[in-house]
Design goal:
InterPro entries: VCA0040-like
Pfam family, one: VCA0040-like
Shape: globular
Keywords: Membrane, Transmembrane, Transmembrane helix
Order of helices and strands: HHHHHHHHHHHHHH
Structural class: mainly alpha
Number of domains: 1
Number of strands: 0
Organism: Micromonospora yangpuensis
Largest sheet: none
Protein name: Putative membrane protein
Strand content: under 5%
């Protein structure tokens, strides 16, 4: 992989990290738009298998063979740069976005609304043909469910370690599911501010419990999602698109504290401008990714066929 593409993966990871800190925006959506989603999901599945085989085989003195094989299947050239960008992106967003979201909530939601709306095109374009009515029904049903879910009033949970563990396990599923925001889930149950504060204050105890929950949730969910993408790709992508559409409710700029939607009011023009900027940014990313894929496909088709050395060829080949 070229150095420029590795650097690009670092920036993709930073964008995913920033998205995960923003309520209503899914890091899985950004991964989908930037073209690294399926490689990350496949790699996560192999990592889960590797740890499972290590726990099962090593104590029984069967060695590291199966675990090592799974580690070799991981797309490390993608995973490592994305992770390298994701961690500082998340920390920087936690530090900078909290005051912006507090002081300019309508403006930021307007920008994010444009980002997520344009992202709906990605899973829709990935649904292989033929498509049938069942895909449309799944899309609409998921959109309605996500719309109702994002309208729930905010709850307040005491950040007890067991509660943090469970919520983190569920929230990490949102990290790998485009259209579902882990930060918004934390906000809904009242653990968003404690988690952001723990990140900013480097509360290692809280972060250790939260990280353990994430690992458990990831190990439980990622294999299921990988299986769905492999066996039921059309339906899974339709559900993803529906989740994206339904989640737009959380990003409507004009809403009350109890999440009741209202008609457009103040700051209409600047919010509209930020909305269009969000559409343009994701549109540019989609176009850039399509061009990259097209160039890669052209390079493969133009590559000359392999010719074995003369000593290995038969007289007829020569």
């Amino acid at each position: 992989m070229a150095l420029g593409e590795r650097v690009g993966h670092v920036f993709r990871g930073a964008a995913i990290g920033v998205a995960e800190a923003v309520p209503g925006v899914s890091g899985g959506t950004i991964a989908l738009v930037t073209g690294v989603y399926e490689r990350l999901i496949v790699s996560a599945g192999h990592l889960v298998n590797a740890f499972r085989y290590a726990v099962a085989d090593v104590p029984r003195k069967r060695g590291w063979a199966r675990a090592g094989q799974q580690f070799r299947y991981v797309h490390w050239s993608v995973v490592l740069p994305v992770f390298l960008g994701m961690v500082p992106g998340l920390l920087l967003a936690a530090m900078l976005l909290e005051p912006v979201l507090t002081e300019y909530p309508e403006h930021t939601r307007g920008l994010f609304l444009g980002l997520v709306l344009a992202s709906v095109l990605v899973p829709l374009s990935m649904i292989p043909r033929p498509r049938h009515a069942g895909h449309l029904v799944a899309l609409i049903a998921t959109a309605v469910g996500a719309f109702l879910l994002t309208g729930l009033p905010q709850a307040e949970l005491t950040p007890h370690p067991v509660i943090v563990l469970i919520v983190a396990a569920v929230a990490v599923c949102a990290l790998v599911m485009p259209g579902v925001s882990g930060s918004f889930l934390l906000l809904t149950v009242g653990l968003y501010e404690p988690t952001i504060t723990a990140l900013n204050d480097r509360d290692l105890g809280y972060l250790a419990v939260f990280g353990t929950g994430m690992v458990l949730g990831l190990a439980s969910f990622v294999k299921l999602l990988q299986w769905l993408l492999d066996k039921h790709r059309r339906m899974t992508l339709a559900v993803m698109a529906g989740a994206l559409l339904g989640s737009l409710r959380a990003l409507w700029p004009w809403q009350t504290e109890d999440r009741t939607l209202t008609a457009p009011g103040d700051n209409l023009l600047p919010i509209l401008g930020l909305f269009l900027l969000g559409l343009a940014l994701v549109g540019a990313m989609i176009v850039a990714e399509q061009r990259r894929l097209r160039r890669a496909a052209e390079a493969l088709t133009e590559e000359p066929a392999y010719q074995p050395p003369a000593s290995y060829r038969t007289p007829a080949d020569r």
